[in-house]
Amino acid sequence: MTGIADGAGAVTATPAAGTPVQPPAGMGLGVSLRPADSAAKTSGTFPYAADLWAEGLLWAAVLRSPHPHARIVSIDTAQAAEMPGVRAVVTHADVPGDASHGRRVADRPVFAKDLVRHHGEPIAAVAADHPDTARLAAAAIAVEYEVLEPVTDPEQAFSAEPLHPDGNLVRHIPLSFGDPEVVGEVIVEGLYRIGRQDPAPIGAEAGLAVPRPDGGVEIYTASTDPHADRDLAAACFGLEPERVKVVVTGVPGAMGEREDPGMQLPLGLLALRTGHPVKLAATREESFLGHAHRHPTLLRYRHHADAQGKLVKVEAQILLDAGAYADSSADTLAAAVSFACGPYVVPHAFIEGWAVRTNNPPSGHVRGEGAMQVCAAYEGQMDKLAAKLGLDPAEIRMRNVMATGDLLPTGQTVTCPAPVAELLQAVRDAPLPPLPEDEPEEEWLLPGGLEGAGDPAAVRRGVGYALGMVHMLGAEGADEVSTATVKVTGPVATVICAAVETGQGFTTLARQIVQDVLGIEEVHVAPVDTDQPPAGPASRGRHTWVSGGAVERAAKMVRTQLLQPLAHKFGMSTELLTIADGKITSYDGVLSTTVEEALEGKELWATAQCRPHPTEPLDETGQGDAFVGLAYCAVRAVVDVDIEIGAVRVVDMTVAQDVGRVLNPRQLRARIEAGIAQGIGAALTENLRTSRGVVRHPDLTGYALPTALDVPDIRIVKLVEERDVVAPFGAKAASAVPVVTSPAAVAAAVRAATGRPVNRLPIRPQAAVVNRA
């Protein structure tokens, strides 16, 4: 398979014992049900936030700081406010409620007041009759700055003056596991750097705020966690949460909480101030400056092993650049420290991790956060050990892989399926792609592309392996819960759940679950808003697990309501009745009727919640049962490298993944392929560059995303369906773990081709150049 297929993530539902279900071919779990919105998306009629309109609409623009660190001496809005067509100008002085906000820590101002802490920080916002007028008015706001020296090196943040009243340290985790005095027979060390990857969503942030008659406001936006956004906005506006409503519009691609609160909050303030609907569609530059990015990370590692290559001890220091504000950096650090040794058995581990504030762009949740950075480092260490011991890189990994029952360095026992050895063996055994001399010569297939390559004789092929792991759901005591309602009227079922469809395939999954349980083919999923009970953020496979679990429970409750009168009438239990293809039949064939006839014009509905088993925070030594579940992946990368110019072409990516259960084959493949593509970008091209804290080229010309020509054949050679018994359907998160694993595999392949250490992502051309003399 090649490229990126349509659809997204997968969710699973294992029918409980005593619930016989025989869904017809083409519906239910396990089939490639086509997304209901696919036609609208492909035809261009799907309603995204940038397409919204309202009567009396005003346009907003946000003034952002050109400096990464400065003291605000004064803000003069008089000239902007007097411009024809301008309806309102708001600054920090116009925020009626909480002036600061944050996902985890409320340290980020709605508008900068005294200090600017990063390039692009919001200073003020304008509402006007025309978008050009709004932009001109924003530019007319006179701000006097006292430019300060920015802190851009996270190592300097420890000794620099505090950038925030809370200081520069967001979190410190000193993990200690085993005996610190143990020393291995073989020791390798490495220093690794991971760049700043941007989520680069297909559509930039946009939204519409509409004032309500009760003095509240409705915000229409592509939110991935509407209830959290509602509560944040209500606190900012000084309103009760019930007077703020967030309505989720079409999400043009997302990787968790990628949206910029600095866009939503000014929108609502302007709507409340003017009494008119206000719309803002961010430019791509504003998108790059406003939303969170992957944490740039510095990692120092020391691996100890015995003479046979068995790991003895891992020592590491991990430093995350949180940027100007805390956001989700504490969670990212917990993942990085906990998975710092990878899916390997390590008897002794001592990992010290820090997340610090700087004047760099904000960092936050990006798919595989924390786990991706450490994977690149520990896999680099495994390659170094293999070279020092003269072992095959796949073999040294095979000698150390973890399995169910092993311990993480946090002391938590791995209770879920952990088929790491099986995954590695699958990619190891897969046939390699043919060498270039075995194929017709095509110049565009050479590194560098058409007319971009040097001497073909300088091209070297490399093969690299990587193993990765991620956690599912929230961690460290996060209360993971979701609520869903299933209604049945005649031959139609409706699902009401505030789980946002971000491309992971939840709406398709919800339809499949109801089809599986109730045998009803026509299932609709209601639009999401905050009038519904909360379902939490769309990240880390949550909606597959908790929201899918809530839908399944509600559907089973409806099934019981439907079948109980029939079972009572015929003197049998509901477990002896089967629903399939819209018909209800008994085990002995005596009863046969349709669902519609059994309903007799009644409407049945039920509401249910799903809440996984609790977790606990890591203690002062990094110990604790912090994670609900884990997922694993193995990737083998094949690359061709022009060792004279440093150009790299990824030839083949072979994947084996631990998925628990395949719920929608097409969507699952699409999620894995998309994750691999994103990982290739992190490995070779994607790095939001800064110069003394100022973002350079914040656009899709300066920020190099991989194209279709950069994504090779992606061969999924094995999907291990060993169900996780604590998950509602036994399924595992699908998209994050290939993102985590593939950059490390590409780096390993470049190491194999060049013999160079390759300790930085993305890989720079000079790192792949070899002196041929």
Automatic annotation (TrEMBL):
Ranges where the record places region Disordered: 1-22
Compositionally biased residues, Low complexity: 7-22
Domain of life the protein comes from: Bacteria
Residues covered by the Aldehyde oxidase/xanthine dehydrogenase a/b hammerhead domain: 43-149
PANTHER family associated with the record: XANTHINE DEHYDROGENASE, XANTHINE DEHYDROGENASE SUBUNIT D-RELATED
Protein name according to UniProt: Oxidoreductase
UniProt organism field: Streptomyces hygroscopicus
